[in-house]
Specification:
Order of helices and strands: HHHHHEEHEHEHEEHHEHEE
Oligomer: single chain
Helix content: 25-40%
Bound molecules: glutamine
Number of strands: 9
Largest sheet: 7 strands, mixed
Radius of gyration: 21 Å
């Protein structure tokens, strides 16, 4: 089998399995199995593959056909131009979440303290701290295993941060200039209709936002006040249809300057709010 034939083989199996980006996934997995770069591939797409490498490619394609997410198979994901280790204990970073990072960056100043609630792989906090040595960051998550992954990601991306394991604010001390969060926000009844990659492989406790999907925003609004400096910003990712509800939750808790920011697809994706003068 040549490189080119292997690519076609992989693409066919993956598209039969219902995978949208079958060609891309086949290509990435071929490069992974062969240990080659895209450039090496294009130098000679008709090169013969050894039996041993062909077998490892077939195994990878078989796993992906079972809808195991590509990033879990590779053990890594890209986010904000950085590479993060991922495993089934953490949500795979999504491109939409980069909007949250960009909005948070606009409102951070040298010396600020930032808290990332529900940090998972740590990708949001680490992206904010990268190259900004005056910022101080704390990442919190209920999952001990997630915090282990986040710690590794901080080391590999050469960022210093503190990490706590706790249920929402339970283990968080002190006051911050900014809180960022991508909390679980899927309605419990919608969990079953997520894509198989998400439904069957990503950690449910990173996705399930309770009956109306809003449970964690209520906690963020109520308990966040005690950990935000006056005028400090809370910046959160939201589901595409949750803008008005999350706006209302923060308005009722006395926050001001509430804004909703859309993602590139034109869906509501980020809510920002500032703590008023009462706690
Ligand atoms: N955006 C994620 C999804 O569609 C959900 C992330 C979350 O619940 N925070 O699967």
């Amino acid at each position: 089998m040549t490189y080119r034939e292997a690519l076609n083989y992989g693409e066919n199996i993956l598209s039969e399995a219902g995978i949208a980006d079958a060609a891309t996934d086949s290509r990435i997995l071929l490069f992974e199995a062969l240990g080659i770069t895209r450039e090496e591939y294009y130098q000679d797409p008709w090169e013969e593959i050894s039996d041993e490498k062909e077998e490892s490619f077939r195994i990878l394609i078989g796993k992906r056909a079972q809808r195991i997410p590509l990033q879990y198979m590779l053990g890594k994901a890209s986010f904000m131009g950085l590479t993060f280790k991922v495993d089934s204990n953490v949500l795979i970073p999504r491109m939409d979440t980069e909007i949250l990072v960009l909005e948070a960056q606009k409102r951070l100043f040298p010396g600020n303290r930032v808290l990332d609630m529900c940090t998972g792989s740590g990708c949001i906090l680490i992206s904010l701290l990268k190259g900004e040595s005056t910022l101080e960051g704390v990442g919190s998550d209920i999952s001990k295993q997630a915090i282990l992954v986040a710690r590794e990601n901080a080391v590999s991306n050469e960022v210093k941060a503190s990490w706590v394991t706790g249920n929402m604010f339970e283990k968080t001390d002190g006051c911050f200039d900014m809180i960022v969060s991508n909390p679980p926000y899927i309605r419990s009844k919608d969990m079953g209709s997520l894509m198989p990659e998400i439904r069957d492989f990503e950690p449910p406790n990173a996705l399930d936002g309770g009956e109306d999907g809003l449970s964690f925003y209520r906690i963020l609004a109520k308990d966040g006040k005690g950990h935000l400096k006056e005028g400090g910003t809370i910046a959160m990712e939201i589901g595409a249809d949750q803008g008005d509800d999350v706006y209302g939750i923060f308005e009722d808790e006395g926050y001001k300057d509430i804004e909703i920011v859309m993602d590139l697809a034109g869906h509501d994706r980020v809510v920002l709010a500032r703590r008023g003068n009462e706690k």
